[in-house]
């Protein structure tokens, strides 16, 4: 399935059928993220329930410590 992540078209593997599946991929796993799906901020409790579809627009914002 093709989605747009942070402005970049991305082809996702089949196991990424939900937002939780996407966030289990190595590049996103164990990061503190704010997730926006098609213009709506998604709460962590919804990750398992939200199915991803072709053409979805996903914004993943991660936080970095430092000073």
From TrEMBL:
Pfam families: ThiS. SUPFAM superfamilies: MoaD/ThiS (SSF54285). Gene3D superfamilies: 3.10.20.30. InterPro entries: Beta-grasp_dom_sf (IPR012675), Mopterin_synth/thiamin_S_b (IPR016155), Thi_S (IPR010035), ThiS/MoaD-like (IPR003749). NCBIfam families: thiS. This is Thiamine biosynthesis protein ThiS. The lineage of its organism: Bacteria, Bacillati, Bacillota, Bacilli, Bacillales.
């Amino acid at each position: 399935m093709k989605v747009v992540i942070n402005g970049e078209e991305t082809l996702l593997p089949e196991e990424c059928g939900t937002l939780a599946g996407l966030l289990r991929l190595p590049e996103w796993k164990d990061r503190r993220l704010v997730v926006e799906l098609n213009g709506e901020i998604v709460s962590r409790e919804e990750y398992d329930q939200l199915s991803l579809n072709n053409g979805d627009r996903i914004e993943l914002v991660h936080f970095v410590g430092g000073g």
